Every structure is written in C-alpha cells, then in structure tokens.
C-alpha cells in the first residue's frame, strides 16, 4: 500500500496494535473514519472552555476518542522516530509548551482567531505526537477549539485529505510553507479562500 505524500509509515510493532482484522488501506481508512465520526459525536454537543481544551490531557483524549476502536495505542504519544516530527522524547514537553503558549496567546489576544488556530494546527503537525492520525487529529482539535469559541469549523479545502489528490497536495504545501515562517497559505486553506 503506497502512502500519500506527507503520510507517516507505521513500524511493524505499531501495525500489530491494530484492533480489527484489516487487510487493505481502504478498510483501515473506513474503520478510522467511522471512529472519527464517533469522536465528533462525543466532542460537539458540548462547548468546553479554552483552558480545558488547551491542555495536553485533552489533546491526548481527543486522539484516543478518534482511534480507540482501531489502534491500541490511540491517545498515546509515539515512542519511535518518524520521517517527520520531533524527537519522541520531546513530545510531552513540546505538547505542554504548545498548550501553555496557546492559552497565553488567547488570554493576551496575540492572534486573531483564525491565526491562533492555524498556529496551533501547524505546531501540532510539526510535533507529530502520535504514531498515526496526526493531521486528522490536528484538524479536529482546532475545529473543536473554534466551535467552543463560538466560531465556525474550518473548510480544510472542502475535499478528502486522506487520499493523494490536488487538495491534499495543497494542504501539505501550505504546511511546508508554514514551516518556513509563512502561515498565510495555511490560513487561506483552512477557510477555503485559497481555492
């Protein structure tokens, strides 16, 4: 199974932690999507305070709810090196630092809402805290932060970001541009203005 650009390959040990009997990437995508829909049902009836959302425990809880029927390691930080992301031993500290910074940015109104969410999303994808599902987790996490702040969820290009396609390529390019210090293309992609 070829991975789309920007996807994270799993180690053999991580693949062994698969809960259902899955044979193809299509089956895996279907199981994960069903689990994510269930996580959305858990999240979206309730608005939580930013202080409750912007903490590493809640960050992990969202991932756990998104993948707990698919992966035994759902909600646990990765312990192995990846083709992207930071050193696994730094993940816990960097996630806490991101949450602390985000609460500070929110309190001091450092960024407008969109830019705050883009900064959080981008940094989460840079940290790459989990073995898999990092992009989907970062998108749902900031969508929920936006919802809890009384704002709309984001458009995310209005297309499938799992499979290799033009929209996914644009998303990956926006993230890479943000790596270089320019967050504007990611903000445009999030709102659908860059289409």
Characterization of the model:
By secondary structure, the chain is an all-alpha fold. It is built from nine helices and no strands. 30% of the residues are buried. The chain has two domains: 120 residues, Fido-like domain (Fic-like fold, Orthogonal Bundle), CATH 1.10.3290.10; 41 residues, no CATH class.
SSE diagram, text form:
Elements lengths: L11 H5 L8 H19 L6 H4 L2 H12 L23 H18 L4 H15 L6 H15 L17 H14 L4 H8 L4
Distance, first to last CA: 29 Å
Query: Which structural category do the helix and sheet elements fall into?
Result: mainly alpha
- CATH class (first level) name of the largest domain: Mainly Alpha
Poorly predicted spans:
none
Rg to the nearest angstrom?
A: 16 Å
CATH fold-level label of the largest domain: Fic-like fold
- In total, the number of strands is 0
Largest sheet: none
Helix content: 55-70%
The tally of helices reads: 9
In what range is the share of β-strand residues? under 5%
Average of pLDDT = 92
CATH architecture of the largest domain: Orthogonal Bundle
Any descriptors?
195 residues, mainly alpha, 56% helix, globular
Summarize the structure.
The chain has helices at residues 12-16, 25-43, 50-53, 56-67, 91-108, 113-127, 134-148, 166-179, 184-191.
């Amino acid at each position: 199974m070829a991975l789309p650009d920007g996807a994270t390959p799993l180690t053999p040990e991580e693949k062994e932690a698969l809960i259902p009997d899955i044979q193809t990437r299509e089956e895996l995508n279907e199981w994960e999507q069903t689990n994510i829909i269930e996580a959305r049902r858990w999240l979206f009836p309730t608005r939580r305070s930013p202080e409750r959302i912007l903490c590493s425990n809640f960050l992990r809880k969202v991932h756990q709810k998104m993948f707990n029927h698919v992966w035994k390691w759902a909600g646990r930080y990765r312990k192995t090196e990846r083709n992207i992301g930071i050193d696994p031993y730094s993940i816990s500290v960097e996630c806490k630092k991101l949450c602390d910074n985000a609460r500070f940015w929110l309190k001091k109104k450092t960024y407008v809402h969109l830019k705050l969410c883009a900064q959080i999303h981008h940094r989460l994808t840079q940290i790459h805290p989990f073995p898999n599902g990092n992009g989907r987790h970062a998108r749902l996490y900031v969508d929920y932060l936006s919802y809890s702040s009384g704002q709309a969820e984001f458009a995310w290009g209005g297309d499938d970001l799992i499979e290799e396609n033009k929209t996914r390529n644009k998303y990956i390019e926006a993230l890479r541009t943000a790596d270089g210090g320019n967050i504007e293309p990611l903000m445009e992609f999030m709102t659908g203005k860059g289409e």
